[in-house]
């Protein structure tokens, strides 16, 4: 079972009667979840969520880094905002 998420293929793979999500990135590498899920649908859903959160994390980090470099944001504010994002999304 698989689906296409903004051009990135997310597949569910069976491991000992449980399921993991697996992303096939356009650069040729593959990312596989550390967590097992009960159904392939759950694995696909969590794979899409992980991809969305990772993309948002990278975009936010880049924007905040630019603001920090421009002097509009101090390092402590950057750290607090990134930590808040991680807490909200329970990512990483």
Task: Give a summary of the structure in a few sentences.
The chain is an alpha+beta fold and 92 residues long. It is built from two helices and four strands; from the N terminus they run ββββαα.
What are the salient characteristics of this protein?
4 strands, 92 residues, elongated, four-stranded antiparallel beta sheet, alpha+beta, 2 helices
Task: Give a description of the structure.
The protein has 2 helices and 4 strands, in the order E-E-E-E-H-H. The protein has 92 residues and is an alpha+beta fold. The protein has a 4-stranded antiparallel β-sheet. A hairpin with a 5-residue loop joins strand 3 and strand 4 (30-32). Helix 1 (40-69) packs antiparallel against helix 2 (75-89). The longest helix is centred in the middle third of the chain and has 30 residues, at 40-69.
Topology:
Blueprint: E1 2-5, E2 8-15, E3 18-24, E4 30-32, H1 40-69, H2 75-89
Antiparallel strand pairs: 1-2, 2-3, 3-4
Give the class from helix and strand content and strand pairing: alpha+beta
How would you describe the shape?
elongated
* Gyration radius, in Å: 16 Å
Query: CA-to-CA gap between the ends?
Result: 25 Å
Strand residue content: 15-25%
Task: Let me know the average pLDDT.
Answer: 89
Q: H/E series, N to C?
A: EEEEHH
Low-confidence stretches: none
- Counting DSSP E segments of at least 2 residues, the number of strands comes to 4
Strand arrangement across the biggest beta sheet: 1-2-3-4
Largest sheet: 4 strands, antiparallel
Oligomer: single chain
Helicity level = 40-55%
- In DSSP terms (H or I, runs of 4 or more residues), the helix count works out at 2
């Amino acid at each position: 079972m698989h689906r296409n998420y903004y051009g990135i293929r997310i597949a569910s793979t069976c491991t000992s009667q449980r399921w993991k999500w697996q992303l096939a990135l356009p650069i040729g590498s593959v990312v596989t979840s550390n967590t097992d899920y009960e159904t392939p649908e759950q694995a696909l859903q969590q794979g899409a969520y992980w991809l969305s959160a990772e993309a948002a994390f990278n975009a936010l980090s880049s924007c905040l880094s630019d603001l920090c470099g421009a002097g509009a944001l101090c390092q402590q504010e950057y750290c607090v905002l990134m930590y808040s994002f991680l807490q909200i999304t329970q990512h990483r």
